[in-house]
Amino acid sequence: MEKLVILTGAGISAESGLKTFRDSDGLWEGYNIEDVATPEAWQRNPSLVQDFYNQRRKSVLEAKPNAAHYALAQLEEKYEVTIITQNIDDLHERAGSSNVIHLHGIITRSQSSINPEFTYPINGWYLGMDEVCELGSPLRAHVVWFGEAVPMIETAARICSHAEMFMLVGSSLAVYPAAGLINYVGPQVPKYIIDPKIPEVHVRGPVVKIQEKATTGVVALVNELLKK
């Protein structure tokens, strides 16, 4: 089976009603990123940060996968698919995708606030400040904050370097290091970019640009690929 690597960004989740901070001048649901999505924010006001992610988790659990999520899951019928997502929701998994790498973590899990390797499932949407890891430190959302390392980036780069087909869906390629992953894809590999605003890419080889939102562009492309 052909190795198909798909990098997804906020655009695909936005169509399920999940907002991204990049849509409104650096604010995420009305909050400054510096106040809710950095290690310093956690040190200053952990309760605010915890509450922010509890509300985001509630939104994620209320959201449903959309047609683009389901279409990408269908590709597993014919391709060896790896989805690398910048998103912290679990919509790909709920749509049926079986091989998903979360570059920035996943909000439905918690992690130790002193050792990110200790992670745990969250039952429901609420995570209390009194809940602690096995080391005794408070649990926080299993999400990579600004200023933290992206632990899965090397794995993702290696997967991209072995891709035989590559798809970019709903990403502005504005957040690094994730934005650099396309550069690991071989020049001869067919690349598809689906977004209402096609980001600038400087890559060699064939690039097909589909200037549509994910729910229409992805569905059309998947139908085409499944017929091949």
Short description:
The chain has 228 residues and is of the alpha/beta class. The protein is 30% helix and 21% strand.
Give an overview in words.
The chain is 30% helix and 21% strand. With 228 residues, it is an alpha/beta fold. It has 2 domains: 1-18 and 65-104 and 151-228, 3-Layer(aba) Sandwich (Rossmann fold), CATH 3.40.50; 20-62 and 110-143, SIR2/SIRT2 'Small Domain'. The longest helix is centred in the first third of the chain and has 17 residues, at 46-62. It is elongated and about 55 Å long. The two termini are 13 Å apart.
Descriptive tags:
228 residues, alpha/beta, Rossmann fold, SIR2/SIRT2 'Small Domain', 2 domains, six-stranded parallel β-sheet, three-stranded antiparallel β-sheet, 30% helix
Topology:
Layout lengths: L2 E6 L1 H5 L12 E2 L2 E2 H4 L2 H6 L1 H17 L4 H8 L5 E6 L5 H5 L4 E3 L2 E8 L6 E3 L17 E5 L9 H9 L3 E5 L21 E4 L12 E4 L3 H14 L1
Helix pairs in contact: 5-8
